[in-house]
Amino acid sequence: xxxxxxxxxxxxxxxxxxxxxxxxxxxxxxxxxVLKYGIFRESLxxxxxxxxxxxxELSRSLRVNLALARQDPKAIRQYLxxxxxxxxxxxxxxxxxxxxxxxxxxxxxVISTPSQRANWxxxxxxxxxxxxxxxxxxxxxxxxNYPKNEVEVDGGxxxxxxxxxxxxxxxxQDLFGL
Length: 178
Description:
By secondary structure, the protein is of the alpha+beta class. 62% of the residues lie in helices and 13% in strands. The protein contains nine helices and six strands; from the N terminus they run αββαααβααβαβαβα. A four-stranded mixed sheet has the order 2-1-6-4. Helix 6 packs antiparallel against helix 9 and helix 7 packs across helix 8 (139-145).
C-alpha cells in the first residue's frame, strides 16, 4: 500500500511539473514580424528580430530594410531592448483602467495585429506576460510574447512606443508610490 502511495505522489508531482512548464511558456506567441517603414513592408521571423536585439547582428533583409528606411540600427536596437521596470500586478491593474486604455491605444498604433482587431487585448496580454517573466518590459519582449502568429511593427514609431512604456512606468510609480 505504501508503495502505491509513493508512486501516486511521484506521478502527481510529475504531472504538476509538466503543467507548470506549459503554463509558464506562451502557447501562442508571435512567429513572424511584419516590419513597416512607410510604404515598405517586410515579413521577418521573430528569431531574426530577437537576434538583432540581443547581439546587434543584422540579417541581410533587416539591413536592407533599415537602410531603405534610413534608420539607425543602433537606435532601433536600443528602443527594442531598453527595459522598463514594472510590477506585474500593478501593471495589470493600470492596463484595465482609463489610463491603461490610453497607453494601450498609443502603443497599439506601433505594435498591432495584422487585422487591426483585438489590438488592446493582444497587447495587454503581451505586456503582462513580459512583466511576469522578470518584472520589466521591453519592446522586444512584447513582440516575442505577442499572442498571435504574426505581429505588425511600425519601425518608424518605435521610439514613441518606448516613450509610452516609460510613461506607463511613471504612471505606475505615481499611482502606487512604487
